[in-house]
């Protein structure tokens, strides 16, 4: 299991991970063809201490075979709750090998989830994470390389992909408010600006620039955008005053782990803050076979996150 999105509903912690496996026709490349996932399971904790609680596997809750528009590759998902319904958001390649956003619905947090017949209109790229505040739902998304974000500008597909280089501003992730019915976008997605201390956008050659795996949480009235730096293998964060940003870069949350990818979520539960993430230690370093981990996340008195050493065992 990988890419954990975590939520606490009615006092219980639910984990919505990707489900890695090793296909027979295995290919590994920069496009991420080795992440050829085909279903989702939901996990929950039987207790309020993630370090000691029993993990319950609620079984398969959505299969690629049940999604009418499916091509391949179910990557990182997230779930939001509204009016007693649970909406699972997942990236999946359509039959033209283009990542789109799919939605599946359940009456229960543990699923099963019933997929909508079509992908969300105007959607693209990967790693959709939803943050709710005052009844509004903000979705953060995007991922470079295999995540296809470099194929888009101003929400339109480019004729040729363009990845900024050197001192050009790094490619930004996107944020969009969801529609009332939770099945589409209420507005055009906007770029998420991550600025340095001088107010300048992080540049493409900055090892701490955005790559994928957006997550949003709120702490002491501030909005914490966290993300993976992909090919430089850090989890980093930036802080802003509202869900749209801009966000000021603050630092590294976690140094590189075993395995190429790094992906996480941050949640308050049982009176503490937790970082859920994955690494490839149990598979002996196979990047496409990842396992979930959790550790406590701490802040200093100024709200800075104390960095965690990526664990190697
Ligand atoms: O799990 C497939 C992809 O790998 C995710 O979508 C990325 O965030 C990375 O973890």
For the structure shown, list the relevant keywords.
22 strands, mainly beta, 313 residues, four-stranded antiparallel β-sheet, five-stranded mixed β-sheet, binds beta-L-arabinofuranose, Tachylectin-2, Chain A, 42% strand
Question: What does this protein look like?
Answer:
It is a single chain. This protein is mostly beta strands and 313 residues long. The chain has one domain: Glycosyl hydrolase domain, family 43 (Tachylectin-2, Chain A). The chain has strands at residues 2-9, 12-18, 39-46, 54-63, 78-82, 85-93, 99-106, 114-115, 129-133, 136-141, 152-153, 156-157, 174-177, 190-191, 194-195, 212-219, 222-228, 235-240, 247-254, 264-269, 272-279, 291-297. The chain is globular, with a radius of gyration of 18 Å. Bound molecules: beta-L-arabinofuranose. The site of beta-L-arabinofuranose has 13 residues, from strand 1 and strand 16.
Kindly provide the name of the CATH class: Mainly Beta
Counted by DSSP, the helix tally is 0
Per the CATH scheme, the topology name is: Tachylectin-2, Chain A
Distance N to C terminus:
17 Å
User: What percent of the residues sit in helical stretches (DSSP H or I)?
Assistant: under 10%
Structural class: mainly beta
Strand order of the largest sheet: 15-19-18-17-16
Got a strand count? 22
CATH architecture: 5 Propeller
CATH homologous superfamily assignment:
Glycosyl hydrolase domain, family 43
Overall radius of gyration: 18 Å
Q: Residue-averaged pLDDT, rounded? A: 97
Low-confidence stretches: none
As a percent range, the share of strand residues is: 35-45%
Could you say how many structural domains there are in total?
1
Question: Which sheet architecture does the biggest sheet show?
Answer: 5 strands, mixed
Question: Which hetero compounds are present in the coordinates?
Answer: beta-L-arabinofuranose
Q: Give the overall form.
A: globular
The ordered H/E elements are: EEEEEEEEEEEEEEEEEEEEEE
Oligomer: single chain
